[in-house]
């Protein structure tokens, strides 16, 4: 079992780092000299894409996903505190801690090209959805929690 560590607002997995912007709308993944920009693919933050240059290197979406390397179709499932990526009998399972404290756990089965890039893109996908959900809860609570206005 591997872990994604968080230190001073930067997430680390292997030799790669994930640095996010305010509100989890964009992020940058760095691995050595290479750099990818990560962003949601839709306003509901259901899917995310990591790209360097013209096309996406990683795209995680329940309906259509793409990861580097050979193999069949990719299956992406995302929940509140975790996600699972499957391809040809191989899998990556990601589990985030409650309340954004502690380290995320990553269980990898099989060999994955660009594992660090795929894992940190998955971390961004789960965290940006968590952030959107938190903002929605705060907005709804604020709208209905103040009683009548006179």
Q: In terms of topology, how is this protein built?
A:
Layout: E1 2-7, E2 10-13, E3 16-20, E4 27-31, E5 34-40, E6 48-51, E7 56-60, E8 75-78, E9 82-87, E10 90-95, E11 104-109, H1 115-144
Antiparallel strand pairs: 1-2, 1-11, 2-3, 3-4, 4-5, 5-6, 6-7, 8-9, 9-10, 10-11
Q: Low-confidence runs (pLDDT<50, min 5 residues)?
A: none
Oligomer: single chain
Structural class: alpha+beta
**Largest beta sheet, briefly?**
11 strands, antiparallel
How many angstroms separate the termini?
57 Å
Number of strands: 11
The count of domains is 1
Please bin the fraction of helical residues. 10-25%
How big a fraction of the residues is strand?
A: 35-45%
* Structural shape: globular
Order of helices and strands: EEEEEEEEEEEH
Q: What's the pLDDT, averaged over the residues?
A: 88
Helix segment tally: 1
Tell me the strand order in the biggest sheet.
7-6-5-4-3-2-1-11-10-9-8
What gyration radius follows from the Cα positions, in whole Å? 16 Å
Could you please describe the fold and organization of this structure?
The chain has 150 residues and is α+β, with helices and mostly antiparallel strands. It has one domain (2-144). The protein has 1 helix and 11 strands, in the order E-E-E-E-E-E-E-E-E-E-E-H. It has one helix at residues 115-144; strands at 2-7, 10-13, 16-20, 27-31, 34-40, 48-51, 56-60, 75-78, 82-87, 90-95, 104-109. An 11-stranded antiparallel sheet has the order 7-6-5-4-3-2-1-11-10-9-8, covered by helices on one side. Strand 4 and strand 5 (34-40) form a beta hairpin. The radius of gyration is 16 Å and the shape is globular. It starts with a strand and ends in a 6-residue tail after the last helix. The mean pLDDT is 88.
